[in-house]
Known about the structure:
34% of the residues lie in helices and 15% in strands. The protein has helices spanning 18-26, 49-62, 79-92, 102-111, 128-137, 153-160, 222-228, 242-260, and strands at residues 10-15, 31-35, 65-70, 96-99, 117-119, 141-143, 163-170, 216-217, 232-235. An eight-stranded parallel beta barrel has the order 1-2-3-4-5-6-7-9, surrounded by five helices. Strand 4 (96-99), helix 4 and strand 5 (117-119) form a beta-alpha-beta unit. Helix 1 packs parallel to helix 2 (49-62), helix 1 (18-26) packs parallel to helix 8 and helix 5 (128-137) packs parallel to helix 6 (153-160). The longest helix has 19 residues, at 242-260. The model is unreliable at 1-6 and 188-193 (pLDDT under 50).
Amino acid sequence: MVQALTASPILLAPAGSLPAVGAALSAGADAVYVGVRSLSRGGRTGLSPEEVGAAVSACRRAGARLHAAINALPTSGDLPDFLASLHRLRDAGVDEVILNDPGVIAFARREIPGWPVCASVGLSVLNPEDARAYRDLGVDAVVLPSAVRPEEIPPIKKASGLRIEVFAHCRPEFLLHGKCGLTGYVVEGGGGTASAKRGGSCRLVCRNLPVPAAAHSIEDELPVWIAAGADVFKIEGRELSPPAVAVLVARFRRKLDAACVPSAGG
């Protein structure tokens, strides 16, 4: 099932804690995405089940939506507990789940029909055929890597009919967004290695490498992206403090609102 496309762009903000959820909403976010402990990027940031319920309530009061980023990859033996966790999130009122594995997407769609699913940036949807394939699996939206340019959005959207999410602000991309495996080379705890999506935790190794440090931002190009058909402008940063979330969201709220105002000559 493909969701109806939004009439005006949505500002989707990150939150790694309940205070960050409140900061994002107060600053003007239309929707907030959170991680869930043990289910999101190895648990580096995430809310407890009780906190998820509180975040849902906060979003309802603000007229906003709550999305859950579930980007840990379950093993075969994990699937029953994984499905139970998805059911709990849906029953708690989470509006949409972000998944990053084709099998998990098909599994979630089969077991919990009707719950909106977004294909994570980790799936690297780069072209119309990619988008159509995930639509056929049952997703409602896709997050495009920051390597995708505005002129590439119309054919992707036309082919799939999906809601298109782009990163308005994120870490610089020196690897294809969502495909970093550097954490797997970092020794965990008592020895061995672990993927951030298979029981480990993202160590943000990229921050210590001689690569560009300036954030990728399209804040001065928002009208171009809106005209191209981007439906959701996503800010990366579940690790950010509540004050940092508030500053970023408020800045993008102003710029997105200004980009949506018709020109005097229009």
